[in-house]
Specification:
Radius of gyration: 21 Å
CATH architecture of the largest domain: 2-Layer Sandwich
Number of strands: 19
Strand content: 25-35%
Bound molecules: nicotinamide-adenine-dinucleotide
Mean pLDDT: 97
Structural class: alpha/beta
Shape: globular
Oligomer: single chain
Strand order of the largest sheet: 16-15-14-13-7-12-11-10-17
Length: 383
């Protein structure tokens, strides 16, 4: 293990290499190319195809075995949600810093226990909300502070994505609230479009539990899953701002999700997967600006090598998000949509559910800060 602050390449390990973890493998290889880091080991229950990694990369089927044999500075965890707490604790206790995929934990209880462990070990934990690395966030804050859109009166987010039957079948935990008695808390709000939640909370200045006053949920499912695939979350911050997220995985086609800061003199729309910002001011043509972004793994590696300042997405900054997740965890099961509101498009594993006119309902929910039920969307009334 290199001493924190040493200029030696940071020794990286990645746990969970197949699904989204592959993108972390690619980023680690990039950092290896620049000499900032070296990938020393990987772990996955399902071994990699022979020849995937150089012979210098040790391969394991568990993080515990990996840490018993290899000295590691930074562990990247890209495993199912219900494994996050235990694996993060193992990594921190070994002296490693952690890049933990979102959602970081399954409850506020796990959040406080992990926060305490991070404090007592003195290690760093970055959470995988990559949109928070966008330089657009600082640019938006500057424009708000300069009063460009007048007084901020609300924040909304809309997300219209598509998920096929194969997506829900890819792993036993996909779309589950509870798997074999273990809470998983997967679903549109807590997983695929969780970035919209975290980004909206960041722009609303409500990343801490003490800044979230209330959470209203209105959750549905068109797919044959336990969790929600179409939801409105309406948060009220302690400063009185409404933050309303309207999210679905049952769109006719994928569109770019966005977070909108609503002001008395205009609005700022942030397409957080693209780092694009559009500003709409009353009586003027909209303007669009493109921004760069800091990468989560690069940022954590730089901190391990002695860079100061805050992490892009410190674990502590995901407390407000975890309040929302905890509300989803405790909520009743999402309501099943009536068949009349859902069309299935495509064949076999590629088939995906489309909720009729969902784009329109998502747009209205965010603009008006009303839930689907309050708007009278057909699947909430024709039951
Ligand atoms: N930041 C993002 O944009 C983004 C995108 C997709 C997924 N994710 C997150 O990444 C995580 C993984 O999601 P996924 O969709 O890739 O899941 P997945 O189930 O498709 O893949 C998880 C991988 O982890 C392995 N694994 C499971 N348990 C393990 C254990 N105990 N030890 C070692 N390996 C284990 C599995 O074999 C599999 O290869 C989740 O937290 C998810 O929310 C983040």
């Amino acid at each position: 293990m290199s001493e924190p602050g040493s200029t030696n390449p940071v020794r990286l390990a990645i746990v969970g290499i197949h699904g989204h973890g592959h993108s972390h493998v690619v980023r680690a290889q990039h950092l290896q190319g620049t000499g900032e880091a070296v990938l020393v080991a990987v772990a996955d229950l399902r071994p990699a195809q022979p020849g995937t990694f150089d012979a210098s990369v040790r391969e394991f089927t568990s993080l515990a075995d990996l840490l018993a044999e290899v000295s590691v500075d930074v562990v990247v965890l890209c495993t199912p949600i219900h494994t996050h707490f235990e694996l993060t604790a193992l990594a921190l206790e070994s002296g490693a810093d952690v890049l933990l995929e979102k959602p970081p934990v399954r409850s506020l209880q796990e959040f406080s226990e992990l926060a305490e462990l991070i404090r007592s070990t003195g290690r760093l934990c970055q959470v995988g909300f990559q949109s928070l690395g966008s330089h657009a966030i600082a640019a938006i804050r500057e424009r708000i502070a300069a009063g460009e859109i007048g007084e901020v009166v609300g924040v909304s987010a809309s997300g219209c994505w598509v998920r096929t039957r194969d997506y829900w079948r890819r792993a036993a935990w996909a779309g589950k609230r509870v798997l074999n008695g273990i809470e998983v808390v997967d679903g549109v709000v807590t997983n695929p479009l969780a970035h919209a939640v975290a980004t909206a909370l960041a722009l609303a200045g409500a990343t801490r539990a003490s800044q979230v006053a209330s959470v209203d949920l209105d959750q549905y499912r068109a797919n044959d899953i336990d969790a929600d695939d179409t939801s409105v979350v309406r948060i009220r911050t302690t400063s009185g701002l409404p933050v309303t997220l309207a999210l679905t995985l049952c769109a006719a086609e994928r569109s770019e999700p966005s977070v909108t800061v609503q002001g008395t003199a205009g609005r700022i729309v942030f397409y957080y997967t693209l780092d694009l910002v559009q500003v709409f001011l009353d009586d003027r043509d909209p303007t669009t600006t493109a921004h760069d972004r800091a990468r989560l793994l690069d940022d954590l590696v730089a901190h391990r090598r002695g860079a100061g300042g805050s992490l892009v997405c410190d674990f502590a900054d995901t407390e407000g998000f975890t309040v929302v997740l905890d509300a989803v965890r405790r909520a009743p099961d999402p309501k099943r949509m009536p068949e009349a509101s859902v069309v299935w498009v495509g064949e076999g594993g590629d088939a995906h559910a489309v909720v009729r006119d969902i784009e329109q309902w998502v747009g209205r929910a965010g603009n008006e800060h009303r839930t689907f039920a309050e708007l009278g969307a057909p699947w909430t009334t024709n039951r």
